Structure formats: C-alpha cells, structure tokens
Amino acid sequence: PSFSYSVALSKEEYKGYRGYVHPIYTEMYKEPRKNIDFYICGWSKMIDEAVAKLFVDLKYDRKQIHYELYG
Fold first, then answer.
1. 4 φ, ψ (degrees, to nearest 5)
2. How far is CA 17 from CA 5, 49, 55, 59, 62, in A?
3. What share of the chain is helix, strand, coil (3-state, %, to 5)?
C-alpha cells in the first residue's frame, strides 16, 4: 500500500511525465528520507547522472539507489 512510482518517457507519446526523469525526483524527493528506494532503468549516461544527483547532490544513501542498464 505504500508503494508508488513515477514514469517519465523521453521519446514515446505519453500523457504522463515527458522528457528526462531527473526533474521528477529532484523536485519530489529533494529532502532525503530513509524510507524510500529508487529503481531506475535506462541508458548508462542517464543512470550515471541519476546516481550522481541522488547520491552526491541529494545525499541519499547508495543502498537506496537501484538501477538496470539498457542500451
């Protein structure tokens, strides 16, 4: 019941978030919380940028960041 997710598609026609995922989590999760995990899937440059923003800029613990590369 406490699970939620956000989807952002950069190229496909979609009525939800369009473009890159970075603005979503930098705004919605800008205050670090211990009860949240991030699951990110995408190409390597996007994953590298997301991990850097979450870990370095937003100060989330590395154990809260999970990702899968494709491309």
1. -145, 160
2. 12, 18, 23, 24, 25
3. 35, 20, 45
Q: How confident is the model at residue 71 (pLDDT cuts 50, 70, 90)?
A: low
Amino acid at 14: Y
Tokens of 53: 């923003």
Residue keyed to tokens 């369009």: 18
**Residue 42, Cβ neighbours under 10 Å: how many?**
19
Q: What is the pLDDT of residues 27-70, one digit of tens each?
A: 989 999 999 999 988 889 989 999 999 999 999 999 999 999 98
